[in-house]
Structures are given as C-alpha cells and as structure tokens.
Amino acid sequence: MTRMPEIRNTTIRNIVILTGAGISAESGIDTFRDAGGLWEQHRVEDVATPEGFARDPELVLRFYDMRRAALSRVEPNAAHRALARLDREWEGRGSLLIVTQNVDDLHERAGATGVLHMHGELLSALCAACDAREPFTGAMLERPACKACGAPALRPDVVWFGEMPYQMERIYGALARADLFVSIGTSGAVYPAAGFVQEAAAHGARTLELNLEPSEGSHLFEEHRHGPAGELVPRWVDEVLSR
Ligand code: NAD
Ligand code: APR
User: Which residues form the active site (predicted)?
Assistant: First the structure.
C-alpha cells in the first residue's frame, strides 16, 4: 500500500478527471474487459496493434468503421452530462481537465469542452504517409485519400498497444498541479493511465475512484465509490459544486 503523503489543504481548485470505457457503458458502448467486452469479440493483437494493422488492414479498418458507425446510434448518458455541467460551472473556481481513454465523442456531445483524448478518437483520421490528421466520419475501408498529401493511407487516429498515448507531458503537468484526481469507469489495467493516481497522490492530491466495482488500482485511491457511473457521477458533481 503506497503511504499516502500529507494531503494538501482541502481547498479543491485544480481537478483532473480520467475516464475509461465504463463511463460510456450505460450509453450502450461495450467496455473492453467486462464479460462480453470488446476484446472478447476480437483478439487485441488483430485489431489494436500496429502489427495487426500491417497483417490485415481490412480487418482493422472494418473494426473501427463499425465502432465509428455505432456512435450515431448511441447518446451521452447522465455521467457525461454531469461532467459537462461541472466543466461549465467550474469556470472561475479553478482548472478542470477531463482526460479520456475513450475514443468515442460522448463527452463532447454532452457539452464538455477541452477533453483530452489520450488514446485518440474514432472521428479523426491519421495519414500513415504524411502524419496529417483530419476529422473523419466515413468508412476507411474504401481507402479514402488523405486531404493533405492525397495518399490512400488513412488509418484510425487511435493509439494502439505499444504506441505512445497522446499529450502525456500535458497530462503529467496537470497531475502535478491537481488538488483532486478522480478516476471514472476504468479497470486500471493499462498503463500509463493506470499510474495517474499515484502521480497525483505523490503531489499531494486527493484521489477518488468512481467505478462499477473495485478495479485493479482501487487500493491506490484514498476514497472509492462503487456503482453505475450514471448514478455516482451526477451525485458527486452536485457535491463538488456545493462545496
Ligand atoms: P500496456 O502494455 O500497459 O497494456 C497492458 C494492459 O493492456 C494489459 O494488462 C492488458 O489489459 C492490455 N493489453 C495489452 N496488450 C494486450 C494484448 N495483446 N491482449 C490483451 N490485452 C492487452 O499498454 P501498451 O500495450 O503499451 O499500450 C500503450 C497504450 O496504447 C496504452 O495507453 C493503451 O491503453 C493504448 N491502447 C489503446 C487502444 C484503443 O483502442 N484505444 C487499444 C490498445 C491500447
Ligand atoms: N459505471 C461505472 N463503471 C463501469 C460501468 C458503469 N456502468 N460499466 C463498467 N464499468 C467499469 C468496469 O468495472 C471496468 O473497471 O469500467 C471499467 C472498464 O474497464 P475496461 O473495459 O478495461 O476499459 P478501460 O479501463 O477504459 O480500458 C483502458 O485499455 O484496451 C485499452 O486503450 C484501451 O482505453 C482502453 C484501455
């Protein structure tokens, strides 16, 4: 058990929130590791690694085209809406950074701004030829041309296993300044995200886990609440805003 450093005073100004697949579960998007989760329907090596993409690009493009198309059939849930409310009403009281491991756009569709997608986004395309990024809503299986260089080399702008997540410096800077770190709907199975709680705690932040059930990293949090995000998150946002 990591010795909890002296928690800084309880004035909460700077908040970092990490969300994972669990916050989108009640919107109907499969999580990765829950029973029947995304990986059980596909071997990770085949659809979420650079090697898998090199081996069978069509399989990978179809996998992400299916997940992109599914976005139009789901809606943000009460947890996404509560974080968007916190994003609006925290203005002027301190800083709020929402870091998500999710590649869906439900935080944005609920109204949250400045969401940091550390694993990329389904609605963005990355050109494997010139590294340009562009918003993308169609199907990549048709091998559309990159708008910047014209090559038919677009790949999902999603961070695969073994690739570096995005904007890590910015995330660690925010964790170092955080007074409160909240993890919502993530299994704590995958690094570097699974280590953010220790990073925040080492700088004196309070730490809270909101998850359906204990995660692999639960023991690293000062406080945990277990239940559906759609119930826990709105209640927690009401608490924080009424402090
Ligand atoms: P990692 O090595 O820390 O991954 C460890 C965990 O990831 C494992 O405990 C397991 O839960 C899962 N994992 C990794 N490889 C797996 C495999 N072949 N089969 C099943 N589970 C596997 O993380 P990494 O591999 O260095 O990945 C680097 C980054 O890429 C991480 O931030 C990861 O979250 C991200 N990523 C994103 C996606 C996506 O679809 N957005 C998919 C995979 C990885
Ligand atoms: N409310 C709150 N938490 C939930 C809910 C819910 N309704 N449903 C599921 N959960 C929790 C599960 O208990 C689990 O801890 O969400 C977590 C989902 O964990 P994963 O499926 O592992 O998803 P995630 O933690 O986001 O995976 C991290 O791994 O495969 C890579 O890059 C991929 O971003 C993904 C990363």
Answer: 119 (proton acceptor)
pLDDT at 55: 95
Please report, for residues 42, 160, 162, 192, 204, the alpha-carbon distance to residue 210 in angstroms, rounded to integers and kept in the order given: 27, 25, 27, 19, 19
Does the annotation flag 38 for ligand binding?
Answer: yes
Q: How far apart are CA 111 and CA 98, in angstroms?
A: 12
10 located within any domain: no
Distance CA 100, CA 120 (A): 9
Label the pairing between strands 120-127 and 154-158. Answer: antiparallel
ipTM of the assembly? 0.76
User: How far is ligand 2, taken at its centre, from the CA of residue 22, in Å?
Assistant: 4
Q: For the whole model, what pTM was predicted?
A: 0.86
Q: Which ligand is nearest to the CA of 25?
A: 2
Of all protein residues, the one whose alpha carbon is nearest to atom 25 of ligand 1 is 161
- CA atoms of 42 and 121, how far apart (whole Å): 19
Rounded to whole angstroms, the Cα distance separating 45 from 49 reads: 6
Domain carrying residue 39: 35-73+123-158
